[in-house]
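FAQ: What does a ligand-bound record look like?

Like this one, built around 5-O-phosphono-beta-D-ribofuranosylamine:
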Amino acid sequence: PKAAILISGRGSNMVTLIEAARAPGYPARIGLVLSNRPGAGGLARAEAAGIPTATVDHKEFPDRPAFERALDARLRREGIDLLVLAGFMRVLTPWFVEAWAGRMLNIHPSLLPLFRGTHTHAQALAAGVRVHGCTVHFVVPELDAGPIVAQAAVPVLPDDDEDALAARVLEQEHRLYPAALALVAGGRAVLRDGRVAFAADL
Ligand code: GRF
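The answer part, i.e. the structure of the complex:
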């Protein structure tokens, strides 16, 4: 499948996904990096990696549905089969989510269902958990609530502050996302009746 990575910022997950997809036999090719923010740092990194980029600036549209129609049209025009949200900071409406049901992944920096929303590392420190991590899931209309494809855990250390914990989680994100995308792109993890079905092989 031809995947598009959607970003809004620096794109550190995008960089690791582009690198991973270069491996011979990787079951997806990264055909596009698309940002909703024209100035996103990840756009320059994608161009440096030779990946086509696009910008669909949400500020140029009167409302969310108009933005999503433009986004959807651009992705279809590029022949995209699979969406990979990586630091994409726009909430998507049920219309868009349903249009890409089973073909859209997101990475969230917590062990869902714990700590939905933002500032997840601050939430983890405040809650005093001793284990934290990241989750790759299929996107569903409810925010940070989709069927889980893969997770990675890290310890929370006694002297951790938000930055230290975030760095430890991000390191795992960069390992987890390429592996999770390969599972889905290779058809070894599929969304079926609202749950993830895993097949040992195709
Ligand atoms: C990461 O914490 C990721 O979990 C979340 O956005 C943050 C930035 O990701 N999706 P990136 O460096 O832009 O890939």
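Follow-up question: can I read anything off the structure? Yes, for example: Residues 7, 9-14, 86-87, 107, 109, 134, 170, 173 surround 5-O-phosphono-beta-D-ribofuranosylamine (CB under 6 Å).
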